[in-house]
Amino acid sequence: MIIDGHNDLVLHCWRGEPTEHLDLDAAQAADFAGGFFALYVPSPPVPDPTAIPYAVPLADQIPHEEAARIAEELFDALCALPVTRATSVDDFRAGHVTAIVHMEGAEPISSDLSNLERWYERGLRSIGLVWSRPNDFAEGVPFRFPSPPDTGGGLTDAGRELVRACNELGILVDVSHLNEAGFWDVAGLSAAPLVATHSNAHALCAVSRNLLDTQLDAIRDSNGIVGVNFAVTFLREDGSLVPATPISEIVRHVDYLADRMGVDHVAFGSDFDGAVVPAELGGVAGLPKLVDALRSAGYDDAAVAKITHENWLRVLRATWR
Ligand SMILES: [Zn+2]
Predict the structure, then answer these.
(1) What spacing in Å lies between the alpha carbon of 230 and ligand 1's midpoint?
(2) CA nearest 46: which of 233, 197, 195, 202?
């Protein structure tokens, strides 16, 4: 059974576009049991990097009212999918797709948090404080290569209140897309394990979206987790958008993260339908190839079980109520 840290299927469904990676009909054969389904209120598309180095300007802030309206439509699109919305770790089972309702960017939450509980009651169980733009709570990292993730200021007062409220309700707080100052603010505040749902090792690919060794150490010390992102621009040492990137580049990041943090803190965070992934993998149907590659790289049954689902289940159990 494979549980995954991030996909953008809902965005495509909302737009009425076909998906490229996550075909739910192919999920069963690939042992894909679901994971985090993003409700992402889109910014204008980020141009694909055509040259290295690159520095995409930070996207503009999206007003709360507009984001809240679009999030309702995204949520309706998620509810129309043939998946179970997870409210308990026990909802995950083999042969079935279970969706964690995940908000990627907290703009749909009002800055006084007055609608947070309503979202929780509807099934929201995970919030990424930011996408790669500023909002009332924090500031995301702009897409830059090479660049450290230290690109701006930390959490606002509202952001700190949101982390506390999420801890109380049992909503997971995701630090992917957050800048470094925001990361350390969450690390200092949150009582839950630190989670980066879809980020990689900065030591191997120096893009602003990836995590420094010091951040990885803090995630390990909190008994948290990193979902390895399959985006080729976050995998490759040269940061280039090359679809012909091999699956071994994913294994390279799994190896690094497992060496640095221990295998208990590594999982998948595919970014299916949100990024260009290795052509050799293709999409959800290629996941068994990735598992085979892990086995060939020396991961035994116990380690594969941890990476594919057990680590996510442990972190969710520690975070949810
Ligand atoms: Zn993302």
Answers:
(1) 11
(2) 233
Q: What percent of the chain has pLDDT over 90?
A: 97
Q: 272 C-alpha to center of ligand 1: Å?
A: 10
Number of H helices, E strands in the chain: 12, 11
Provide the H-helix boundaries in 96-246.
Answer: 116-121, 157-169, 180-189, 213-221, 232-235
Q: What is the DSSP secondary-structure string of 63-97?
A: -HHHHHHHHHHHHHHHHTSSSEEPSSGGG--TTS-
Q: Give the distance (Å) from ligand 1 centre to CA of residue 54.
A: 18
Query: What share of the chain has pLDDT > 70, as a percent?
Result: 100
Q: Of 43-47, 166-170, 226-230, 271-275, which range is least confident?
A: 43-47
pLDDT in tens, 215-235: 999 999 999 999 999 999 999
At 179-216, the pLDDT tens digits run 999 999 999 999 999 999 999 999 999 999 999 999 99
Structural contact between residues 3 and 267, judged by C-beta atoms closer than 8 angstroms: yes
CA 88 to chain centre: 19
Q: Is 1 exposed, middle or buried (0-12, 13-18, 19+ CB in 10 A)?
A: middle
Q: CA gyration radius for the chain?
A: 18
